[in-house]
Amino acid sequence: MSVTLRDVARLANVSVKTVSRVVNHQGEISAATRQRVQVAIEQLGYHPNILARSLVSRRSNTLAVVAFGLDYYGPSHTITGIEQKAEELGYSLLLSLASRPDDPDVDSLLAPLVARQVDGIIWAIPEIGDNRAWIRCERLEQLPPVVFINMAPRPGLAVVAIDNRLGAALATQHLIDLGRKQIGLITGPLDWWEARERRAGWQETVARAGLPISPALVAEGDWSAASGERGLRALLAGQPDLDAVFVSNDQMALGVLGAAQQLGRRIPQDLAVAGFDNIPESGFMCPPLTTIFQPLVEAGGVAVQELQKIIRAQQDEAGIEFTATWLAPELVVRASSTAARPAPA
Amino acid sequence: MSVTLRDVARLANVSVKTVSRVVNHQGEISAATRQRVQVAIEQLGYHPNILARSLVSRRSNTLAVVAFGLDYYGPSHTITGIEQKAEELGYSLLLSLASRPDDPDVDSLLAPLVARQVDGIIWAIPEIGDNRAWIRCERLEQLPPVVFINMAPRPGLAVVAIDNRLGAALATQHLIDLGRKQIGLITGPLDWWEARERRAGWQETVARAGLPISPALVAEGDWSAASGERGLRALLAGQPDLDAVFVSNDQMALGVLGAAQQLGRRIPQDLAVAGFDNIPESGFMCPPLTTIFQPLVEAGGVAVQELQKIIRAQQDEAGIEFTATWLAPELVVRASSTAARPAPA
DNA sequence: TTGTAGGCGTTATCAA
DNA sequence: TTGATAACGCCTACAA
Fold first, then answer.
1. Is the CB of B27 under 7 A from strand C?
2. For a FRET experiment, which of A305, B181, B277, B336 has its CA 20 to 30 Å from that of A124?
3. Which nucleotide does the CA of B18 lie closest to, via C1'?
4. Domains by residue range for chain A, with CATH
5. Would you say residue A38 has pLDDT above 70?
C-alpha cells in the first residue's frame, strides 16, 4: 500500500539510509545519487511516515491546545493565533475541547495528548473557581511542557495573559476623563479570573480618581447580552444618577445599549458606555461602542513561541525559565462614550 | 524515561504480548495474570504509546479538519461540532487552518496530515471560485477518506451541507407573507457557493410569488457590517420604494439596521429586515433581528459520523456509498420583521 | 560518500 | 492461557 524508504532505496539502487539522508537534507550526498533518489521518490510518490519518524526521534512535532468555548469570540481568536504560529514553526496542532470549563476532567483531557507524544501543551481553558487545582509540580513533571493562557501568573509556570486589569483601567479612566462622576460596573461571572481582574481595574481607577465606590455601582453578569440588560436595570434601580458604566464584555454592553434605549436613557448624553473585546459588531451597534481591543491572536502566537522555547531548552538540557508574559490591550473610542447619536437624515 | 510494555512485562513476570492483551482487553487471560499485570501497570504508571500502536496497526485514530476563518461565527461553530463528535467516537482531532480560502495551497495543507496517517479528513473550507478544482479522482485516491462541508454536492463525494437555498427561501417567504412587495437582497460575495445558494433561494421565492425581480433589488456585500450599510444605501438609491430586504448574513444585517436608522427608514414599518446565521447578538440588535438559524454544530457532528462510516466501510472492504446530507435551517422571527420598535419608557 | 545493524514501542502470527 | 519472534517505517550509531 504505502511507499516506504525501502521501496525508494530499491528503485534507486542505494541503501535505505541514503534515501533518508536525501529526504532530511543531512550529510553529504553526491549530486548523482541525490538525483537518482529524488527521481525514485517522485516516481513512487513517496511521503515520509511521520509517525515512524516520531517514534524513533521521540519528538512528534505536534502541539496540543486544550480550550473551552471555541464558539465564543475570545477562544476562537486565540486558537487562530495559536494555529498560525504553530504552522509557521512547523508544528501540527491537536485540538481538544473541554465540555465544561469549571471542573474539566483534566486526566481524560490530558491522557490522549500524552499518549500521542505531543511535544507541548497550551492550556487555554479560562481560570474559573479552583479549576487550576490540578496544577501541581508532581503532575506537571509527568507532562510535556505546558504554557497557560489567561490565568493568574504563578512562579514556576509559563503564562501568557492579556492585562485585563489594564484594559479595564483604560476604559474606566476614559469615562472619568469625560467628566463622569458615577461610574458603574457590570462584571462577568466573578468566579472567572478575567472577570475579577477587570473589576479590579475598574475599582483601582475609580478609587484613584477619588470617585465613589459602592455595591450599588456593581452588577454581576454572565457575559451574555441578556445579563447586560438585567445588569443595567439593576444599576439604575439602585443608583438613578448613574452617568457612565464600564461593561466587562461587548455582548453585555449590547444588552446595556438596548436596556438604556428602553429606559429612555440617551447614550452617551445621559449614560456613557464602554465595553471590552472589540467584537466586529461593536463598531455597528447603535451607537457604536467604545471598547477595549485585546490582542488575542497575538497572545496565541506568543504562547506557541514560549512553548517552543521551553521545548528547546528541555532538549538542550538547558535551564528552563518560566515567565509570565503580559500583553497590553488598547482603548477603542467610539460614539457610545463621546459623540451624540447620529441624527436621522 | 518512558515506561514501556517491556518494563511492565518484566515486573509482572510475563511476556510483552500478555501485557498488551491486558491493556487492550483482548484474548483470554487468567484472572491471576491480569491482576499481576494491572498492579505492575499501576505501579510503573504505564501509558501506551499511541504512535507506536498506530505505526503497526496502521490506524491513527486521528481525524483532521481543514478550515478557514476560525475567528468567524460559522467555522467556529462547525468545528465545535466536529470536535465534540470526534471525541465522542474516540478520535483525536488535528486542526489545520488555511491562510486564504480562495486558492489554498492544497498540497502543503494536506501533506502533513497524510504524513501523520490521519484516518480521515474533513474539508471545511468554503467553496469559493474554483478552489475545488483540486478535487479529482486520482487525487482523492491518494488520500484517506474525505468529507466535505458546505459545498455543492457531486457524485462520488461525501458532502454535508446546510440547505442555504431553503434558508433563504424561508426568510424571503416570511417577508412576502407580511405583505411586502419590493423585496430586496443583499448577497454575500458571489464567488462563494453559499452566497449564490442564498441568492437562488431569494430569487426562486420572489419569482414564485409573482413579485418583481430586477438588478436594482440586488446588492453584493462581503459579509461585513460595513458592506451591509453600503448595500442598503445602494438599494434605496435605485429602488426607493423598497419595503423589505433579505440580508445574507447577520453582520451585514446589522449594518443595514444602522443605515436604515441614519436614512430615517423605520424598521419594520418602512422596511422589514431578515438576516441569516442567528448570531448571539441578533436577538439584541435594535430592533431584534429576524434571521435564519443554521444547525452548524450538528453539521460538524454529522460530518464526523459520515467520515467514520466511510472509514469503517473501507476497512471492511465493503462498498463505499458517498452521499450528500442536507441539513435544514430554521426561521427565527423577531421584531425587525414584525413588531413596532419598543417605545422609550 | 555510502552502507549495515540495531532499536524506537507496539501489535500479530504462530507455536507451545 | 501464554510466549518468542517478526514486523511497522524510520533514524542514529558506527563502519566501510
1. no
2. B277
3. D2
4. 5-48 (1.10.260.40), 58-163+296-328 (3.40.50.2300), 164-293 (3.40.50.2300)
5. yes
